[in-house]
Amino acid sequence: MIADAQREARFTAWLAEHRGIMHKIARAYATEPADQADLFQEILLQLWRSLSAFREQSKPSTWIYRVCLNTAMTWKRDERKRRELAAPEWSLSEVPTSDPRPGWTHEESELLGQLYHAVRELPPTDRSLVLLALDGTSYREISEITGLTENHVGVALTRARQKLAERLKGVRHEL
After folding, report:
1. pLDDT above 90 covers what percent of the chain?
2. How far is CA 15 from each of CA 32, 67, 99, 117, 119, rounded to the nearest angstrom?
3. Domain 100-175 annotated CATH 3.90.1010.10
4. How far is CA 111 from CA 27, 117, 144, 165, in A?
5. Which CATH class is domain 1-87?
6. The whole model's pTM is what?
């Protein structure tokens, strides 16, 4: 078990370096900004809780993806239950930004929004594979993150891309 100071330093470094992964997954699994913020917080909590289980047998980004995706899938599965128990809507004073590139034009942001909308419509496993592929993750790393074989990753990712392409018909080619 690592010391508290080491744990906090590692968590802070991971947050600085891999915040984009966390935002990307939150945005792909939650539609509303408030839900994205809630999921992002849940991801942070689960990363903190699971930090001591990291054995450095994989890259930190691989571990982070695994924790984030598992958290997001659990969060999504439990979403209906949360909605039934939900309190009235509040106005949040500050929601963490999920914009991966500040300074984008409105048109670029709209295209990204359409991509995320199409990704959210995919089944959870396909969604995970597409997010990892969009991030340039190798089949080997995707295999480590998801527990699928590399061959299964290739086949499933090809099918997921086809589903995504079908959903994005008519959207500009820039995606």
Report:
1. 43
2. 22, 13, 16, 25, 24
3. no
4. 14, 10, 30, 14
5. mainly alpha
6. 0.64
